[in-house]
Design goal:
3-stranded antiparallel sheet; 5 helices
């Protein structure tokens, strides 16, 4: 069962879609078109995440995890955001259904894979 925060983000996802002025981009999961994935775009200035957006192809837990993560990391130092774990994200979300933890892990993987290469 989705926790209250996760359910709210599922009903009203925040920060969805490509970020045209992104400085960082990362992918978690499969390549788009090959299965579930999360892509995260970041606008990082002077080490701080000023904006974060996502796209995902997965279940409702993936939408909720990606939306919560982007909201959570906006305004934080990139180095600090990169220390967040999937279990911490799930706890902040208030929980997700058993067996769906992989979707929180994909969102974290996308964040950790974000680099300063031009976003694709």
């Amino acid at each position: 069962m989705l926790g209250a925060l996760a359910a709210d983000h599922l009903a009203r996802p925040r920060n969805r879609g490509p970020l045209t002025n992104a400085t960082h981009c990362g992918l978690g999961g499969n390549e788009p078109g090959e299965g579930p994935f999360v892509r995260i775009w970041l606008l990082v200035e002077q080490g701080q995440i000023n904006q974060a957006t996502f796209e995902t192809h997965g279940c409702p837990s993936s939408i909720a995890a990606s939306s919560v993560l982007c909201s959570l990391i906006t305004g934080r130092e990139l180095a600090k955001a990169l220390t967040l774990s999937a279990s911490e994200l799930i706890a902040i979300m208030g929980g997700i259904p058993d067996g769906k933890e992989i979707y929180a892990a994909m969102a974290i993987q996308a964040l950790c894979n974000a680099n300063s290469e031009p976003p694709s």
